[in-house]
């Protein structure tokens, strides 16, 4: 996995030269499809950068909640964007560490409260413009596995490999429930189902950059696959694609 210093270097270098050559792996899909863990483990295997774009939307949502900003007020949210600095650190064991204005919020952004508002926040044009430009800066040097909802369609339409990762709703509810049940203040199965249904609806029906399969994307349905089987399946797809482009996946 690429360390943070590499991320910072990326931001300071000229981004025009290598972007066409270095691979970008885009993984999109609905909540609970296992995108985060799959993308993280794949990035680790390939020694690529892991870019968790959902964490950025979550961070901004958390700041709005804390500052009592009405998340339905697009102008107030646009103002908030202008006053916010979001940064990511890629750790080897913890996945992505997320900071708002220098303060770590990695676990807070996963709370049910943030999950309740984040899809709504991500419909706002100014929020998307700011975060997409940050995502492009971080990933434009390539050798990145980026996951989210609009990676293959909007953020990196030139991605080398595009995966649409999905699983049936029942299985996605089970996974979220298992993830949350150890946590204080966790939700009931019914609440999780309501949240996933609502996010599926908002994420796939919003006007700007809705969740949809990119034309060239390969669908991987992992309803009956575990995490390592999912990672392995995608790794094989990636390896084949890299082999075709002549890019070595060996490090
Ligand atoms: O992947 P996640 O559950 O952490 O994402 C949280 C929300 O952020 C998701 O419901 C929609 C939004 N999102 C988005 O609109 N575009 C992305 N590229 C990533 C996430």
Structure description:
- The chain has ten helices and eight strands.
- The protein has helices at 4-12, 35-46, 53-66, 74-82, 112-121, 125-139, 151-155, 169-180, 189-205, 227-245; strands at residues 24-28, 49-52, 86-90, 96-100, 103-104, 144-148, 161-166, 218-221.
- The strands form two sheets. It has a five-stranded parallel beta sheet, with helices on both faces.
- The chain is globular, with a radius of gyration of 17 Å.
- With 251 residues, the chain is an alpha/beta fold.
- Mean pLDDT is 89; it is low at 12-20.
- The protein has one domain: P-loop containing nucleotide triphosphate hydrolases (Rossmann fold, 3-Layer(aba) Sandwich), CATH 3.40.50.
- Helices cover 49% and strands 14% of the residues.
- The protein binds 2'-deoxycytidine-5'-monophosphate.
Uncertain runs with pLDDT below 50, 5 residues or more? 12-20
Q: End-to-end distance, in Å?
A: 11 Å
CATH topology: Rossmann fold
Query: Care to count the β-strands?
Result: 8
Helix content: 40-55%
How confident overall, as mean pLDDT?
Answer: 89
H/E order of the elements? Answer: HEHEHHEEEHHEHEHHEH
Percentage beta strand: 5-15%
Alpha carbon gyration radius:
17 Å
Strand numbers in spatial order across the main sheet: 2-6-1-7-8
- CATH hierarchy, class: Alpha Beta
Detail the topology: elements first, then pairings.
Layout: H1 4-12, E1 24-28, H2 35-46, E2 49-52, H3 53-66, H4 74-82, E3 86-90, E4 96-100, E5 103-104, H5 112-121, H6 125-139, E6 144-148, H7 151-155, E7 161-166, H8 169-180, H9 189-205, E8 218-221, H10 227-245
Parallel strand pairs: 1-6, 1-7, 2-6, 7-8
Antiparallel strand pairs: 3-4, 4-5
2'-deoxycytidine-5'-monophosphate (DC) binds at residues 31, 53-54, 57-58, 118-119, 122, 148-151, 199, 203.
